[in-house]
Specification:
alpha/beta, 7-stranded mixed sheet, globular, Shikimate/quinate 5-dehydrogenase
Length: 318
C-alpha cells in the first residue's frame, strides 16, 4: 500500500484519512494539520521523510505565479527544503493541469459562459484556472490584493496583475505566510462579516473561484445563487454554502469519503503513481494520468430543501 500524507499549516480539525484504489494501487491518503505552527510542521515533515511514498505541503504555497514569472515564498521553501528523501509537492503542478481542464470541461457543459462575471480570489495561487477563465472570455475580478493583503483594490486583467506582482512580491514573498493566508485556528473561525466593501465582490459575481479558505474568509451571510469553483471542501463547508444561498458548488478534485482533498494531496498521489520526484515529473506525465483516472469536476446543485449531486458529472475514480 502506498502512503501519501499532506502536512498542512491549517487546522487539525480538518484532518482526514481515507483508503482508496487508484489505477490498481491501494493508497492510504492522510491530511495532518499543524494549527499554523511552522515549527511543528517541520518536525512532522522530518518524521515522515523517507517513511512515506509522497508528501504534499498544505495550507501554504511554495510558488506563486503571475504570467511566466514564478515567485518563491520563503516559508513554503523552508518546508520544502526540510524534506530530503521523499518526493514532495505544493500542488501547483495540478493547478496548472487539472484546473485548466476543469474550466474547459465546465465551459463545454455550459456551466461557465463567455462574459460571465468571475471573482477569482487569488489568480497567483491558481494561475492555470485564472488563465483558462480568461481564455473562456470571462470578465475577471482578481482579488489577490483584497483577499491576501486586505487592500480593497480589485484587478481586472491578468497582465495588470503581473505588473503589480513584480513590484510587491519581492516584499510579500518574505512575509510570514499567515499574514497573507488563513492558517491554523483562522480556518475554524466563522467568515468575517459586516464588511460591505468585501461582500460586494461576491454579490456582483456569477462565479466565485479559487482557494476555499480565501473564499470563506469574507463570505457574506447572504449569497444570491453564485456558482463556487474550488476544492478542499468538507461536509460542513457544503452545508454552509447551501445555507448562505449559493447556487452550485463545483470541486476540481475528487471526493473521498465526504470531503475533497487539496491539489497538494492529489499531486503527491501522482508522484507516488509515477515513482518520480517533483523535478522529474512533467506536464505530459500529469496529463496522461488525468486521462487514465478520468476525473471530472464534481457538481452539486443547491436547492432549498436538499443537496442534489449531478451523477453524470461526479468525479470518477480509475
Amino acid at each position: 500500500m502506498k502512503k501519501v500524507v499532506s502536512v498542512s499549516l491549517g487546522s487539525s480539525k480538518r484532518n482526514h484519512t481515507v483508503r482508496v484504489e487508484l489505477l490498481g494501487e491501494e493508497f492510504e491518503i492522510s491530511r495532518l494539520g499543524t494549527d499554523g505552527d511552522i515549527h511543528k510542521a517541520i518536525s512532522v515533515l522530518k518524521e515522515l521523510d523517507g517513511s512515506v511514498d509522497a508528501i504534499g505541503l498544505g495550507g501554504i504555497d511554495v510558488y506563486l505565479y503571475a504570467g511566466n514569472t514564478r515567485y518563491v515564498l520563503q516559508d513554503g521553501l523552508r518546508l520544502l527544503e526540510t524534506v530530503k528523501k521523499t518526493p514532495v509537492v505544493d500542488g501547483s503542478g495540478l493547478k496548472n493541469t487539472l484546473e485548466r481542464q476543469a474550466v474547459e470541461y465546465l465551459v463545454q457543459q455550459g456551466l461557465i459562459k463567455k462574459d460571465a462575471r468571475v471573482l477569482m480570489v487569488s489568480a497567483m495561487d491558481r494561475f492555470g484556472m485564472a488563465e483558462a477563465l480568461e481564455k473562456a472570455g470571462c470578465r475577471l475580478t482578481l482579488g489577490d490584493l483584497v483577499f491576501a493583503l486586505g487592500i480593497p483594490i480589485p484587478i481586472r486583467r491578468l497582465d495588470k496583475l503581473q505588473s503589480i506582482a513584480a513590484k510587491l512580491m519581492p516584499v510579500v514573498s518574505r512575509l510570514p505566510f499567515q499574514f497573507i493566508y488563513p492558517t491554523g485556528q483562522q480556518q475554524d473561525k466563522h467568515p468575517r462579516t459586516g464588511s460591505n466593501r468585501f461582500a460586494r465582490y461576491y454579490l456582483k459575481a456569477e462565479v466565485v473561484a479559487g482557494d476555499y479558505h480565501l473564499i470563506r474568509k469574507y463570505l457574506p451571510e447572504k449569497l444570491n445563487g453564485q456558482l463556487f469553483l474550488t476544492n478542499t471542501t468538507t461536509r460542513e463547508d457544503v452545508e454552509e454554502l447551501m445555507e448562505r444561498g449559493a447556487g452550485m458548488l463545483i470541486t476540481t478534485t475528487p471526493e473521498f469519503q465526504g470531503r475533497t482533498f487539496g491539489t497538494n494531496v492529489m499531486e503527491a498521489v501522482f508522484l507516488a503513481l509515477l515513482n518520480k520526484s517533483w523535478e522529474e515529473a512533467t506536464v505530459e506525465d500529469y496529463t496522461n494520468l488525468l486521462k487514465q483516472l478520468n476525473w471530472q469536476p464534481k457538481i452539486i446543485k443547491f436547492h432549498r430543501e436538499a443537496l442534489v449531486l449531478e451523477p453524470a458529472t461526479a468525479g470518477k475514480l480509475g
